[in-house]
Amino acid sequence: MMSIQPNTPNILLEQLGLDSQEAEIYLYLIKNDKSSALDISRGLHLGRTTVYRILDRLQARGLVNKISGELGLKFQASAIENLDLLVLQKEQEVAALRKSVPALINQLDLIQAAKQQGSKVVYYKGQEGLKQVTWNSLQAKELLTYEVEIMESFLDEEFAEKMRLEYALRKIPIRELTNWNYFAPYTRHEELPNKWWQARYVPEAELKIEFEILIYNDVYLMYSYKDDEIFCVEIYNAQLAQMQRNLFEFIWKSAKPLKIIGPGGEAKVEG
Is residue 178 part of a domain? Predict the structure, then answer.
């Protein structure tokens, strides 16, 4: 019969986020109090460069203190109670993951729905991919969008203005939901905001819009361009697009209209 071994200090420290060498050096200092990097290197048969690198990491975690004295630089394990900081960090990581799970499930559900017969999912990366999916939206009969920021925030101004001109020339109605209650002038092509563009304001407390989303024809498109990462997913699925269109219409009914108040698409919430 296999016996169950109790958790050793090394295993428990690794569960708190230390790697095996970090745990080994930390336990060495617990047992030996003040030690030089040479002492640790000899005691654990580790290269001195490796020891210094690991000691720096342990100091950053609040688990090791540096002590300068007549005999040179030595290291000492800090108060054992500082391990609580590692537990707190783990708890914060779990809380952050818990918050992100609903959004992740929603996005995975959308992608999974696109696996139905006749559907396809196309992935794009980088600035050129972002331009491509934006250009593809010129096929729209009507374009519904959740907007985080104006196009110049993630595309160059020349391309953004070219898109606005094309929307107007092709007479594509655009409706967008946004967390912005005011738009500064943003275009030279007056026909687009005056004839083909409508926007409504949704307070962040009710719906925080964190992804640029486009819905048109049988396409549901979402993209992110934050943190130097540009990632786009274009999903072709009639049922998914219709479901998202219905959700958009539901939110649209209660959202507050923005009214054009000046040239270049300047607008603000009415009332």
Answer: yes
The mean-pLDDT minimum among 45-59, 73-87, 133-147 falls in 73-87
Q: Give the HSE-up count for residue 172: Cα atoms under 13 Å, Cβ half-sphere.
A: 23
Is the same domain home to 162 and 258? yes
Q: What is the total count of domains within the chain?
A: 2
Q: Which amino acid is at 218?
A: D
For residues 115 and 55, give the distance between their C-alpha atoms in angstroms, rounded to a whole number: 50
Question: What range defines the domain where residue 129 resides?
Answer: 114-269
Question: What's the pTM?
Answer: 0.57
User: 6 pLDDT exceeds 70?
Assistant: no
Q: Name the phi and psi angles at 141, rounded to 5.
A: -80, -40
| Pair 89, 62: CB distance under 8 Å | no
Distance CA 82, CA 15 (A): 15
Q: CA separation (Å) from 33 to 69, 71, 72, 250?
A: 15, 15, 15, 66
In the chain, the DSSP E strands lie at 64-69, 72-77, 120-125, 143-147, 174-178, 182-183, 197-201, 212-216, 219-224, 231-236, 256-260, 267-269
Contact at 8 Å (CB) between 64 and 26?
yes
Q: Check whether residue 229 and residue 135 sit in a common domain.
A: yes
Task: In whole angstroms, give the CA distance from residue 203 to residue 178.
Answer: 8
Q: Which helix (H) or strand (E) holds 25?
A: helix 20-32
Structure tokens at 92: 């914060």
- Identify any residues that bridge with 260 across adjacent strands, giving them in sequence order: 267
Q: Is 109 left (phi over 0), alpha (psi -120 to 50) or beta?
A: alpha
pLDDT in tens, 103-134: 777 777 666 665 555 678 888 888 888 888 88
